[in-house]
Amino acid sequence: MPYVGRFAPSPTGPLHFGSLVAAVASYCDAKAKDGKWLLRMEDLDKPREVQGAADGILRTLEAFGFEWDREAWYQSQRTEFYESALQILKNKGLAYPCTCSRKEIADSAIASGIEGAIYPKTCLNHALKTNIHEAYRALTLDENIVFLDEIQGEIIQNLARDVGDFILKRADGLFAYQLAVVVDDAAQGVTHVVRGADLLDSTPRQIYLQRLLGYATPHYAHVPVASNAAGEKLSKQTLARPIDMRPPGHALFDALSFLGQHPPAEIKSVTPDEIWQWAITNWRISSIPKQRAIIFGD
Question: H or E segment at 192?
Fold first, then answer.
């Protein structure tokens, strides 16, 4: 199948270095393989969205010379499709309502997994409380999800033991990332996902949902995330600074170096078009460090 990749930022603030790394990796991999590169704004979580951030991200990407091959998608405009997918899972008995609070789950959990307390299926047969808004969870099975990541190697995860029945739709009515990203990747025909390794542990959940919904599973490659000296992923929450776009060559040089591509120093002073010509021609995904995080300092 023709290569279709994508970059899917969340508009919770300006583009920072960690996001630029993911954008550069996905763009270079798509273009080096004569593929399409799509842009999707993951703006479902409205309480966390910063006003104007989506437009700011688009302007920053344009200033760096990124060119997406179709009109950008916005998840906030696609809730009907997530609702349809959830209904399919409900009809199959693979999604169920849950009225438990986080505190109740923490107090009643008997096991912990990669993201904390594992939900003990309290509401599996019948939601405990009435007259309150329900969340919906995916019913997980005691079986391994196995996939080969192009950078990180073989990944094995047992959803029931390592994650538990995860949220598909929150009690406040917002759809969860795991369901939305699966529906949108399928709808956009995405064949290759190149993104940060902070999402590596989410991939088995997404593969599981793809199988339940009858979608094809893309190829995955998870690049190291940029972290600060404390080992925290660069993000708005860790006060990551916005990318300095003047001149763009310096930031792109840093991103390519971070990805193990060894760009020549003169790239810092040439135009974005010239940088992309070098980066795409010399792109080697095999040169990317096989780590989940790398400290990036100023």
Answer: strand 192-196
